Amino acid sequence: MIEIRALTKRYGHTTAVEDLTFTVQPGTVTGFLGPNGAGKSTTMRMILGLDEPTSGTVAVNGHAPRAHAAPLHEVGAMLDPRAVLPSRSARSHLLALAATSGIRRPRVDEVIDAVGLRSVAGRPAGKFSLGMAQRLGIAAALLGDPATVVLDEPVNGLDVEGIRWIRGLLHDLAGQGKTVFVSSHLMSEIAQTATHLIVIGRGRLIADTTVADFIASAAPPVVRVLSSDQRALAALLRSPGVTITPAGRPAGSPAGDGALLICGRTAGQVGATAAGAGITVFELATEQASLEDAFVDLTKDAVEYRPVTRQGTPTHQE
Fold first, then answer.
1. Which end of the chain is more exposed for a tag (fewer CB within 10 A), N or C?
2. What single string gives the DSSP state of each residue in the chain?
3. Cα–Cα distance, 5 to 116 (Å, whole number)
4. Residue 252 has pLDDT above 70, yes or no
């Protein structure tokens, strides 16, 4: 596992990470989220022993990162998929890593096949597309069959097939009991792969929780209902702790469809109330905020970089 205790990193007068404490457990995929400038990259570099903490401690599988006798067998990582000599082939790159860590040569072919690079293994890495470079970086991370895997933006540059492959790979690694720690800006991917989240902002811990609890803490579920008598149903449901509002206007529609959004009652309770009053229900569904909605809500005060808009001047964002 990865154990972070009171971790702080300062660069001169700038504090990149401040008093972080969390544990990444084995057997699960843990997502690492935060706005730009939150300190994610600095934290991951300290986990790998690439940067030394100003104070606090990092332990990977019970030891300081630099204390491992065979690092690639303990932790495999991909921070920059382009960190490869461009003239060196994928196979030569992996063979060099294997030779420095006492890893048998057949293992190189195993990981090349595992990431789907067999047909291009002899090609110079400098000619690889970003997606191919990602696969090579992941192959290097898996080379020593490590107990802990740390990946930064692993789906960046991958096509649809590659993204689906990554999802399956991460779940397989966690299923083997490995510690899997993944940073990404793609909320949809984290939502589909991670079961636990570490969220930081401005170098501080914001959340250490499950994906489901993180979403629920930002916005409770809302029940959407459309019935034969909305006014009567609203009157029956209205009570302390229950809020009832009209649903938003559907895209492309000149007006709302008359549905109500109920907060404070479950879909089962709303349906039972309607049935008891003889009200026909045409639509009944629970709407839960997305991970992206929850992330934006809970990190809004920790955003480092915001666009500045001037009256009459549109701001264009890529």
1. C
2. -EEEEEEEEEETTEEEEEEEEEEE-TTEEEEEE--TTSSHHHHHHHHTTSS--SEEEEEETTB-GGG-SSHHHHEEEES-TT-S-TTSBHHHHHHHHHHHHT--THHHHHHHHHTT-GGGTTSBGGG--HHHHHHHHHHHHHTT--SEEEEESTTTT--HHHHHHHHHHHHHHHHTT-EEEEE-S-HHHHHHH-SEEEEEETTEEEEEEEHHHHHHHHS--EEEEEES-HHHHHHHH--TT-EEEEPPPPTT-SS--S-EEEESS-HHHHHHHHHHTTPPEEEEEEE---HHHHHHHHHGGG-------BTTB-----
3. 38
4. no
* Exposure string over 221-247, b if 16+ CB within 10 A, otherwise e: ebbbbbbeebeebbeebeeeeeebeeb
- Classify domain 2-216 at the CATH class level: alpha beta
pLDDT above 50: residue 3: yes
pTM of the complete model: 0.80
Domain segments of the chain as ranges: 2-216, 221-287
Mean model confidence pLDDT for the chain: 89
Q: Report the pLDDT value the prediction gives residue 257, as an integer from 0 to 100.
A: 66
pLDDT in tens, 226-241: 999 999 999 999 999 9
Write down the residue that tokens 């510690």 correspond to: 179
Residue 310: band (very low, low, confident or very high) from pLDDT cuts 50, 70, 90? low
Look at residue 311 in the predicted model and tell me its pLDDT: 55
Q: Is the pLDDT of residue 154 over 80?
A: yes
* Residue in this structure with the two tokens 């920790």, named with its chain if needed: 302
pLDDT at residue 87, as a whole number: 94
φ, ψ of residue 102 to 5 degrees: the values are 70, 30
Residue 306 CA from chain centroid, whole number: 21
For tokens 């206007």, what's the residue? 249
Whether residue 254 is predicted with pLDDT greater than 50 in this model: the reply is no
CA 70 to chain centre: 28
